[in-house]
Amino acid sequence: MDPIRNPYAPGAGQRPPELAGRDRELQQFEVTLERVAAGRPERSMVLSGLRGVGKTVLLNALRGQAVRRAWGTGKIEARPDQSVRIPVAQAVHAAVREVAHRHRDPDRVDEVAGVLKSFALTTTLDDRRAAARAGRRWTPPVDVTAAKGRADSGDLELDLVELFTDVATLAGDLGVGVALFVDEMQDAATAELAALCGACHEISQQGAPLIVVGAGLPHLPVALAASKSYAERLFRYVSVDRLPREMADRAWTVPAGSEGVEFEQEALDELYRLTDGYPYFVQAYGKVTWDAAVGSPVRAADVHAAAPDAEAELAVGFFGARYERATPAERDYMSAMADLGAEHGDAAVATSDIARHLGRKPQSLSPARDGLIKKGLVYAAERGSVAFTVPHFGRFLRSR
């Protein structure tokens, strides 16, 4: 079939043509936006799940909902080697811009911009250097004088509370709110997670129209709870998982139907067997199957013909790139996880079992384990066990 008309979109954070299986989350967020704008109490939100399940896609879709309701929005991606202060300042600046042009009091807008500039300027030299290395400007482009005595204490939690309060008030004047979206939230330092939680808690108690929506790996809820004991009650936690069969079929058939193409049932059966409903795999296999198919309807034989191409592409771009980031010791650790997980569908593996498998003492493997966690390749599923952050990664390692 014509590859130019191929409707599937495998890509990091790239929205698929049919966002299947996320209707409930989208509907709930509409309610959240309405309640917050009306001054009613509502919790911020945290999305968590494995890589490739569509967390970033959903995060962007939620932001789109806020934009359509004329909210001020901004988005950051947390990084393990960088403070969140400068990224937050830039994201909040974007949100202020989105509401400022509709505000009737330019002096009030300038006051808030001054507080924002003050918040951004309160950075350490290390923060500035890290921002420069990441290609970020360390001061927001606002042509106002920095406010004094507001959001400039150096205490991140206190400064966030003051910044969020002023920005939320600005948006509230227009009957809307502000939403800050934080991707890869688990990569923020524990102290900064605590500061974000503390600021969200205070803003929520004030009833101010500002919410934070975070997204991260499965251990993000645990990391938040470790930073602040009340975090488990502060957010509404949403587990983003693979698609059930009906939704996976919809992700294949609806885009194809818009191009006048149908699928045989056997083809859909085989696609689901290969992908397990993981959204990234759904798009990847859908794309190569379209290109391999002779015409409509798409047959199981087309899926079989295309599968090696999908596997090869995933082996390089999705799995291989992550594997290459690991040191030899970390690769040995992951190989042991894959071997032990073969009989249990790559579920969590006890760290003590990994040590026995490698003939090593558990303490000697801590550097490899910690390195893999920092690189986002594994996560602590529960105390004393680890699991891959990437679906089918164990299968990939066993095939090498």
Description:
α11 crosses α12. It is globular and about 65 Å long. The protein contains 17 helices and 8 strands. The chain has 3 domains: 90 residues, Orthogonal Bundle (Helicase, Ruva Protein, domain 3); 217 residues, Rossmann fold, CATH 3.40.50; 75 residues, Winged helix-like DNA-binding domain superfamily/Winged helix DNA-binding domain (Arc Repressor Mutant, subunit A), CATH 1.10.10. β7 and β8 form a beta hairpin. The chain is an alpha/beta fold and 400 residues long. The strands form 2 sheets. The protein has a 5-stranded parallel sheet with strand order 2-3-4-1-5, sandwiched between helices. Strands 6-8-7 form a 3-stranded antiparallel sheet.
Secondary structure class reads alpha/beta
The 3D shape can be described as globular
Q: Averaged pLDDT, please?
A: 92
Side-by-side strand order of the widest sheet? 2-3-4-1-5
Estimated radius of gyration? 23 Å
Which CATH architecture of the largest domain would you pick?
3-Layer(aba) Sandwich
Please trace the helix and strand order, writing H or E for each element: HEHEHHHHEHEHHEHHHHHEHHEEH
The count of helical stretches stands at 17
Question: Which percent bin holds the helix content?
Answer: 40-55%
